[in-house]
TrEMBL record:
Protein name (database record): SRPBCC domain-containing protein
Activator of Hsp90 ATPase homologue 1/2-like C-terminal domain sequence ranges: 14-150
Transmembrane segments: none
Lineage: Bacteria, Pseudomonadati, Spirochaetota, Spirochaetia, Leptospirales
Organism: Leptospira noumeaensis
Record-linked Pfam families: AHSA1 (PF08327)
């Protein structure tokens, strides 16, 4: 089988540590982890440690869509690696790596002339099996990173 890899990047105006922690706090996570219009979060369970598991029950049109996996690597605030399994991966384990890299940008300054912190969030999803899976996950992960950006902006204001 020819394995496919998806890469999604987003610059977010926030500190890498805050963004990293948003991925591991179930209460916060359920507020921003939205993969598309009409999709909600019914529940989130997390055991954020290497070898710990998570379960994200997404809801669409009254139907629960479980997404689950296991944390492989947790290197705060730089890197998070976990398996990812759902109906959209044909219930096969795939691998997701999320990195958080602080970006220096002198053009982004606050009112006090202090440099604003921006983080490049890079998500790499490996072991996808088809172009359809790439397309579906590209849409989902982009929506999720947009949700993280909007949520972070709302709590920092």
């Amino acid at each position: 089988m020819n394995q496919k890899v998806l890469r999604v990047e987003k610059r977010i105006s926030a500190d890498p540590t805050k963004l990293f922690r948003a991925w591991l706090n179930a209460k916060d996570f359920s507020l921003w982890f939205l993969s598309g219009e009409g999709i909600g979060i019914e529940s989130v369970t997390m055991d954020p440690r290497p070898g710990g598991r998570f379960l994200i029950n997404m809801e669409l049109d009254g139907k629960i869509l479980p997404h689950y996996g296991e944390y492989i690597t947790i290197e705060e605030p730089y890197k998070l690696v976990f398996t990812w399994r759902s109906h959209a991966t044909e219930n096969r384990d795939t691998l997701v790596t999320v990195t958080f890299e602080e970006v220096k940008d002198n053009k982004l300054e606050t009112k006090n002339n202090k440099q604003k912190t921006t983080t490049l969030v890079t998500l790499i999803h490996e072991d996808l099996s088809s172009e359809l899976q790439i397309k579906m996950h590209n849409h989902g992960w982009r929506s999720i990173l947009d949700g993280l950006s909007h949520w972070m902006k709302s709590i920092l204001e």
